[in-house]
Amino acid sequence: MTLTKEVLQTSLSPRSIQFHRQTDSTNDLAMRWLLEGAKPGSVVIADEQLKGRGRMGRTWHTPPGVALAVSVVLHPPVDAMPHISMLGAVSIAELCEHVGAEKVGIKWPNDVRIGGLKVSGVLPEAVWEGNKLLGVVLGMGLNVRANFSGTEFEDSATSLEAELGKPLNRVDLLVHLLERVDYWANLAGSETLFNAWKIRMTTIGQQVKVAGSSGVISGLAEDVNSHGALLVRDADGVSHRVIAGDIALGGQG
Ligand code: BTN
Hints:
253 residues, alpha+beta, five-stranded antiparallel β-sheet, 6 helices, 25% helix, globular, binds biotin
């Protein structure tokens, strides 16, 4: 189904929404809206992003008609901040499971994958006024029917429809996704959310190379902690707590 403002407004009522057929980045619009006083749960949706942003300064492609690009305004307490990307990944993983996908997992930190191929990414961005947290924008991108064959992502990315072998309605997906986000937003900071994230974490037990802020660390991913950090033991037996980063070069998970 084509995404239109009318359909979305009806399906997502009484939530405050912005729909854009085309925009640079839904996160940018949601951060501006947050500064203007958007209520928690307000959501910006775009059919196409021209400058979608991914983690670690990467570009996130959202061609028209094939994906969900969504940014939700949240107002979590500061100490729940490390749980915001977790709640996005868990909500998307649950959505994938809800429509029948199997082998759904989360690659550290928050890539949702089906059978080892990335189907979704999460980009939370906080908005501060001095040292006061005004809110967070939780950006989520989901490949619904993007076709990666013949592209640089052929061996690493997939789409929900390709995995399920059936067409999906993006409006229904969005309704369910936002229900899950609402549910988990109320549990941000809790052990329940952490456990829902950890049981889906496929990186634990894998040999990884992680590009973190202090260079590349190689070793065994032994565990995650409640703040979302990855605990990696290197060949010398030294344990490293990796807070932000990306599993790189030959890393499994
Ligand atoms: C990643 O690198 O895995 C995170 C990708 C996050 C993409 C989403 S799409 C909606 C929102 N708007 C953006 O510009 N980025 C996020």
